[in-house]
Amino acid sequence: MSLVACGSPPPPPAAASGPTSSAExxxxxxxxxxxxxxxxxxxxxxxxTGQWSVRTEQGTPSAPNALCQTASADYxxxxxxxxxxxxxxxxAQVKPISGRTDQAAGVLLRIRDAKxxxxxxxxxxxxxVVIFKYVEGSRSEIRSGAVSVAxxxxxxxxxxxxxxxxxxxxxxxxIVEATDATFSEGRAGLWTKADSVTCFDDVVLAPxxxx
Length: 211
Fold this sequence. Notes:
Layout: E1 29-31, E2 46-49, E3 52-56, E4 65-69, E5 77-79, E6 88-98, E7 104-113, E8 116-123, E9 128-135, E10 138-146, E11 155-162, E12 165-170, E13 173-179, E14 187-191, E15 197-206
Antiparallel strand pairs: 1-15, 2-5, 3-4, 4-15, 5-14, 6-11, 6-15, 7-8, 7-14, 8-9, 9-10, 11-12, 12-13
C-alpha cells in the first residue's frame, strides 16, 4: 500500500544561470567588529542614515561584538569602506531582532554614494530575499524569492554582483537571481528598513567565487 502525502513538496533550490565566478581578484576583507570601540562606528565606515554602532551582543558568531542598527528610518544604510570593485560578494551573519513594520537585514553592493546602490535584503516578517536598486534616493524591486527568514537567530546572508548578474543567498542557498545594468562598480555596505533592529557580524567583502 502506498501513502500519498498531502500538500505540495517544497520547490528545489534555485540554480545559478549566470556566471558563478569572476576574473577580478582582490584580497578579501573581514569585519568582526571585535577590535572596534563599543558605541561607535567601525574604523573606516560611514553611516548614511539610521543609528549604527558597535555593541556587545550575546551569542555573536565571533564574540563579543556585533554592529547593530537601532533607529527607525526609511532605509538605514551605511558604507563599510572606500574600497571599490566591479564584481563583488558581500557575506554577513545577520540577526533581525525586532520591528513591527519590518525585520530586515541587507547587504549593499556597488555603492556609488548615499543615494545609489544595489540592495540584497532578507525580511523575517515577509519571508523573502529581495534584490532592489536604489537610484537617486528612490528604491525599486528587481526580483524577489520566497524563503523562511528567522527572527532573533543568526543566519548567513550573501549578495553577489558579477557583470550584470545579481544574486541573493540565505544560509548558503541561492534564493533569487536577476540581471540589471544600472551600477557597474562601487563599494560594500549594510542596510535595514523602517523600525528594524538588526545586528551584523563577520561581514566579508570578497571576489565572486573567491571566498
